[in-house]
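__Protein archive entry__

___
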Amino acid sequence: MNKIIRHLGACALLAFAASQPALAQGDAAKSVEAANAAWDKAFNSGDAHALAALYDEKAVVSPGNGKAVKGRADIEKLFKGAFGAGFRDHKTEVVAAHRDGKVIYETANWSAVSEKDGKKTEYKGVLLKVMTLGSDGKWRASAHTWNAAP
């Protein structure tokens, strides 16, 4: 009887341990989806200030042009420039996300439209984002880079 109980206990422990990565991934996916929805909403409303607030104060962003900007003020300027160039209709689709404690790594496909002088150009690419959990319980991007192709 004791042997059967030990085996059942071991099986339950293994089943619980095996389920943990799935739980962590599910938690990461939920957090990433919520963060991406907030990001797309701020971008699509043209609110560079709200968009910059979704980044850590010392975040680094590289828009795939070989340059990087650091800090919310410069991130806000970067997105003001994008809005001035007619960018809108941003969509993010998660490819993979992984949470490790207070850090989430995300790879996603993105798309957006630029409209200038009545001409629409759709852009798309892949992004890599690292988000950290703040003491206020909010996830903020601390590093974000992407590539783009029309």
